[in-house]
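Blinded run. Sample ID left blank on purpose so nobody reads anything into the name before looking at the predicted structure. Input follows.
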Amino acid sequence: MKLQLNNGARMPCIALGSWVGTGPEEIARASSWLLTALEAGYRHIDTAVLYGTEVAVGEAVRQSGIPRKDLFITTKLPLHHTKRVRESLGQKPETHWTRLLRSVVVYKDNHPLPLNADGSLMLDETCDFNDTWKEMEKVLASGKVKSIGVSNFSMKTYE
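Blinded prediction complete.
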């Protein structure tokens, strides 16, 4: 079963979440069980920038041999990534991450925040949702992703 999004894209209703923990061993094992899930029939993989499993998802997709057009890969960006939307989506050629993405969702932070190299919290107090959304629209217009949306927003926050 698939849902039709407002832009006409069709998204499978059931997705496999790719959160595995923060340890390097868990992340290293992720591509194996993600591949098993793809072989078992999953066609929607849900991940997030903070999960750290982008490479594992990409490896599983490549190893599966499933045509890319048959998969829906969703990632999520923290709201405070306004000035780092493209960077957060792995727009580095060596990752090929943007070729995998089908949908990008911005979420209201309820997860641990990223840290600067010195260990301090990486926050941008000058950003707001509208600015982040505008940056996401630019990525959508570039063709790097097929859909954008929101997650973990209350109706009050969304409005």
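Unblinding after everyone has recorded impressions. The chain is about 35% helix and 20% strand.
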